[in-house]
Amino acid sequence: MKLLQDGELNIDVAFLGVPCSDEFGNANGTHGRSCCGSLGYAMVDAHFARRVVLLTEELVPFPNMPASLMQDQVDYIVQVDSVGDPAKISVGAARVTSNPRELMIARYAADVIEHSGYFRAGFSMQTGSGAAATACTRFMEEKMERSGVKARFALGGITGSLVDLHEKGLIEKLLDTQCFDGQAAASLARNPNHVEISTNVYANPGSKAASCDQLDVAILSALEIDVDFNVNVITGSDGVMRGASGGHCDVAAAANLTIVVAPLLRSRIPTVVKRVTTRLTPGESIDVLVTDHGIAVNPARPEIRARLIAAGMNIVDIDALYARAISLSGIPKPIEFTDKIVGVIRYRDGRVIDTVRQVKE
């Protein structure tokens, strides 16, 4: 967002897939047979692009309201046979897990929230799209009902689990920049307090007000986290780029309590490492790491550590988690890179904080 606002990046043409549109270009993601939910990312593309082309499978009578993308932003509308399969939305980033290890991590994360000092009436949360992060929402339901605590809002990518809590009266409002499953998309169409927001409203530090600045608790995932709590969500254990970061670094910096959930090992590859391959979110933004082998608290948050120890939780130093990971897996062979830079990591304020280099063949 900041690079677009500053003019450093320019979008010549934005091709935006939408389930339905009228002939003027009023479009939304909540109606049509390929309903996908929030168009929070497309809103920003439509705002900044020199030309906007909508790809839609369904032309409906004017005016198609409510509209996420408005007619004065759109240059062309192209009708296509299909814009995609909404049933596959939750196959990617978001998925419901039955994996015992991920459920264990999710339960630990919910316990951390409960005893952190931020679990109180009117708290706010973001629980992310990873399997353990999504499962954590389910465990939070039990704690909220037992204690009578209701959340003021949930933010970010919205899942069916968050919708369930909203419809049970445990979360007052959902601020949705991206629907992570069909249940969330359907909720956006029918629930007046499930509100679509753009990524600018969600987490842009250059906007007049970013919603993430109101967050109490955020649960985020990681491909790697190092002993300084720096997080990598960009490159895999082979050094190849695996996905986008979304609002990871924005939410981590803004929330009062940022929890990373990750297994100690993935397929014999350590998740806790000496130094991350690619630094996306600086360690000073991460407060707690929850793994299946223990919970590490950033030394910068001694009050959180004290509360969790008082609650009887298994608190360990992150160096001990790293040592445990290496004892189980051995030290992985270093990835060999060329000098060619194939990606640049820009922090939320525009600074370059890392680069991605080409993996040597």
TrEMBL record:
<keyword id="KW-0456">Lyase</keyword>
<dbReference type="InterPro" id="IPR037171">
    <property type="entry name" value="NagB/RpiA_transferase-like"/>
</dbReference>
<dbReference type="GO" id="GO:0006084">
    <property type="term" value="P:acetyl-CoA metabolic process"/>
</dbReference>
<dbReference type="GO" id="GO:0008815">
    <property type="term" value="F:citrate (pro-3S)-lyase activity"/>
</dbReference>
<dbReference type="Pfam" id="PF04223">
    <property type="entry name" value="CitF"/>
</dbReference>
<dbReference type="GO" id="GO:0009346">
    <property type="term" value="C:ATP-independent citrate lyase complex"/>
</dbReference>
<dbReference type="GO" id="GO:0008814">
    <property type="term" value="F:citrate CoA-transferase activity"/>
</dbReference>
<dbReference type="GO" id="GO:0005737">
    <property type="term" value="C:cytoplasm"/>
</dbReference>
<protein>
    <submittedName>
        <fullName>Citrate lyase alpha chain</fullName>
        <ecNumber>4.1.3.6</ecNumber>
    </submittedName>
</protein>
<dbReference type="InterPro" id="IPR006472">
    <property type="entry name" value="Citrate_lyase_asu"/>
</dbReference>
